[in-house]
Amino acid sequence: MSAWLDVDAMIADRDRKIIICCGSGGVGKTTTSAALAVRAAEAGRKVVVLTIDPARRLAQSLGLGELDNTPRPVAEVGRSAGGSLDAMMLDMKRTFDDVVIRNAPPAKADQILNNPFYQALSTSFSGTQEYMAMEKLGQLHTQAQADGRWDLIVVDTPPARSALDFLDAPEHLSSLLDGRFLRMLLAPARGPFKIMSVGFNLVYSAMNKVLGAQIITDVKTFVTAFEALFGGFRNRAQRTLEILSSDDTTFVVVATAERDALREASFFVDRLSEERMPLAGVVVNRVHRSALAVSAERSLTVAEELSGSGDHRAEVAALQRHASRMRLIEREQTLLRRFSRSRRGVRLTQVEALPSDVCDLVSLRELGDLLAEQD
What we know:
56% of the residues lie in helices and 12% in strands. It is of the alpha/beta class. It folds into 2 domains: 332 residues, Rossmann fold (3-Layer(aba) Sandwich); 31 residues. The chain has an 8-stranded mixed β-sheet, with helices on both faces. The longest helix has 30 residues. It is elongated and about 85 Å long. About 6% of the residues have low confidence. InterPro entries: ArsA/GET3_ATPase-like, ATPase_ArsA/GET3, P-loop_NTPase. It holds the Pfam family ArsA_ATPase.
């Protein structure tokens, strides 16, 4: 089995100022991020946790009525060690709007914010959520350096469709906004496009018929107003990638002991290695265990013997349930052994499945204890 991921040592390392939890959807990234943040705060770190999950369950578990784009203090977290915890939830459109307002003159900002193409881009374009999570991370990092309000930022990343989406989002969005096609829409008959203006006009005319003249006009208006901000997006994207690969940051890949989740975790581990980004290790959530060292086969044998010797229906059902659980445990451990063999050197911690949902600070602390528990 892989080396153990020492979560408490990771939290205690003051050189680590950013912990990024990444992985596929449904593996417990949000609760893992929150549990790490609570544990770090109660160990003396000044923490802000940025979540992407819009569900109110996390806010309620932290003792807050709701979360929004502004960090809110979590008063119920113990401060005896000198730490603190703020929590916030990414508002994708609000973050994008703030970028525009902060970087464009007021008249241009109003023109952009009211543009229909921008409104669609800022709410539903593929990759925008991932990019805005990184924009917000950059803002928090800058603020932490300026005023020392936080010494640790924990980020719950969006559930990427593939392992590449999260790391590539800054480049994808800046490429879209600075793309050749949008430049052609803006000035199809000038500069290098002049010689192809006849052919382009045919395409442009066809697009008008398919998409409608108003959509094309909205895009052109948006590009014209947004042109001055293109360089800023590229620069921020580059700074974001520099932060992600610096010694300030470490990544935690979150998975479950299921084939698809571990395959996605492998993609993340490999990509982080290729990009030379610092990986702390892998958290495997909801691992099943049993206090009874009775195999599935033995349980089924005893159940069969009991079923033919009187009324033992309750005992037989219990033995069959235990056999099913043991088979699940065997399947999970087989998958984890394969993962460990294929990714040697990657640190791993297994988190036992809790009997109920994480719904309050007590269960977040319990999850934190399990995260730090040595296998």
